[in-house]
Amino acid sequence: MLPFNNITNPYLMFTFMLLYFVNLVLDYPLQGSFLAEYKQKNNYALFVHSAIWGIGLSIGLAFIDLFAWWKVIMLVAGHYAIDYWKCRRVYNSWFPKLSDHGAYYIDQAIHVVQLLLCLI
To answer: Which of 58, 64, 77, 102 lies at a 20 to 30 A Cα distance from 90?
Structure first.
């Protein structure tokens, strides 16, 4: 187990940066144009994208001895909910003046929170 006894621990920052890099790779290049297009309107495509992302991160967590089943569920379900909010533009009814770019930043900020929870 990696020692996470304080926030200045270099292992903590390295682990977070590793998870963030895996997040970016799984969320963009590995989803492909088909999933990128169809997750906008198809719940199954959105679930497949969320499962690829969550299970991929979970495999990474297993390599660094941080795997737990609750994290898999939190990652997949959370990613689905967050991307549903963004892809279906649910934010327009909550925040009418929020731009697509603003929704993207909120989406990524919540994904960062998910990654931080994985460090527990």
So the answer is: 58
Residue 53's pLDDT is: 96
User: Is 58 inside a domain boundary?
Assistant: yes
Contact (CB, 8 A) for 2 and 15: yes
- Planar angle of CA 46, 84, 32, nearest 5 degrees: 35
Query: For the whole prediction, is pTM greater than 0.85?
Result: yes
By residue range, what is the domain housing residue 84? 32-118
> Rounded distance, CA 57 to CA 98, Å?
29
Q: Which residues of the chain are modeled with pLDDT < 70?
A: 1-8
Residue 4 in domain: no
Structurally, the chain folds into a number of domains equal to 1
